Amino acid sequence: MAGSETLDDYRDKRDFSRTPEPPGEPDAAAIHPIFVIQKHDATTLHYDFRLESDGVLKSWAVPKGPSLDPKEKRLAVPTEDHPLDYADFEGVIPAGSYGAGTVLVWDRGTYQNLTRKGGQEVPVAEALRQGHVSFRLDGKKVRGGYALTRFRTGKGEAWLLVKKDDAEADPRRDPVGTEPRSVVSGRTLEEIRAGGTGPGEAPDGREG
Known about the structure:
The termini are far apart. Helix content is 11%, strand content 38%. It is mainly β and 208 residues long. The relative contact order is 0.17. The strands form 2 sheets. The chain has an 8-stranded antiparallel beta barrel. The chain has a two-stranded antiparallel ribbon with strand order 7-8.
């Protein structure tokens, strides 16, 4: 299990007497690790992509969100680790706070580590240190294989999030553009800002 120091950066940036975000504690590894993609309307609109590893959520800001097209390479900028209970966070971070703006749980579910070397599974934490991790997402909006690959290190560290060419790849479908609602509450960013309850789940069972 990761030590509590893995969340020091996260906590140092926040005043929990002002923000509704959870302070969190690192948790033990899960049998089925989770992922979450949160739509975040802050200084700029972006998507926060998070994978559970070592008891925390490893996090990247993805300006354009995930794509279902294997030919699309989406920039992913690493951010501080977040607590696992942040996967449930949806609401408004007040003005003057770090990351001020509206957060929506755009998609979430479990994932499977697909990273292999010499026929053996490479743990996610080690794969991230090495700069490449492959995984299969099992979400409500996004499914199938993806890879995160680091292409720049140092102060300007940056990664690419790319869809694998598998049965779930679909260049014609654009969930970022067509499925804006939360998979938790069914609300849009505007409805969360306004404090409304939203319409809930769509008639066909798909949120968004």
